[in-house]
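Blinded run. Sample ID left blank on purpose so nobody reads anything into the name before looking at the predicted structure. Input follows.
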Amino acid sequence: MKKEISCSKNTNENAPANLSDLRIEEITTYFKKLKKQSDCIEFEVECTESGVAAKIIGIDKDEDATAFERRTALHESTGMLQIAAGAQLLSQIASCENPTGVAESKASLEKASAMMMELQPQDAFEGLLISQMVATHSQAMNCFNRAEKSDLIAHREMYLRFADRFMRTFSIQMGTLSKYRRGGQQKVVVEHVNVNAGGQAIIGEVHHQGGGSDEKK
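Blinded prediction complete.
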């Protein structure tokens, strides 16, 4: 006998079928916020010997009606409150791609800004850490790409070793970010407890007192 299962159908034609209505609402709100941020932040790019130098346009004018929105967008994208610090952080990420010329520098800067907007750092510390994670991920993917294109086995193995190091570093960075967001607290979840016959399971904190044994002789 077949069992009928009723499923709620999403009325949004553009939304994936496997997403709940609540999740779609969250994503829609996020897209609106992301578009607003992208519209707020505008760059003036300069290509220097040390890399990409970016200046955010129209954010330092107190009389401008959109200045606060631009500052808010910069903070939500980089975690930085200072304009120069946010611009410097995005410039450093963009410089990791070694762009040549103003056009490539601007493209790298826009990609860096988009990636940071996606990850939404909550403060300056997270902005610094997440920017390093973006750079680490980019270098790992670059090594994989170079390994794929390499004709020499020795070169391919070398790039794969570098990629492995970058991925290990990324995992450490992920752990650091997770720990920081938890406030340094560590949570341990015990899924299974096996107790033998005649044994006793203790759930909770166990404190050991010093000063010898209480066992009777």
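Unblinding after everyone has recorded impressions. The beta strands are 43-48, 51-56.
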